[in-house]
C-alpha cells in the first residue's frame, strides 16, 4: 500500500507531465518549465515515500 508521500509524489509527477505537455503545445515556455520542476519534485517526494516504506518494513 502506498504511503502519503508516494501517492502525493506520483500525483505531482503526473500533474507536472500534463503541465509540460500543455506548455509545449501552446508554446508557453514558463508553463513547460514549471511542469518539469513539478515532475522533479514529485519524483523526489515519491523517493522519500519509498525510503520511508522500506524503513518501516
Notes on the protein architecture:
With 57 residues, the chain is mainly α. The protein is built from two helices and no strands. It has helices at 4-26, 29-56. The two termini are 12 Å apart. The mean pLDDT is 95.
Which features characterize this protein?
57 residues, mainly alpha, 2 helices, 89% helix, elongated
Number of strands: 0
Structural class: mainly alpha
Q: What is the count of DSSP helices, taking H or I runs of 4+ residues?
A: 2
Which percent band covers the strand fraction?
under 5%
Low-confidence stretches: none
Radius of gyration: 13 Å
Provide the helix percentage.
Answer: over 70%
Report the biggest beta sheet as strand number plus sense, adding barrel if it closes.
Answer: none
SSE diagram, text form:
Elements: H1 4-26, H2 29-56
Helix pairs in contact: 1-2
Give a quick rundown of the structure:
The chain is mostly helical and 57 residues long. 89% of the residues lie in helices and 0% in strands. The longest helix is centred in the C-terminal third of the chain and has 28 residues, at 29-56.
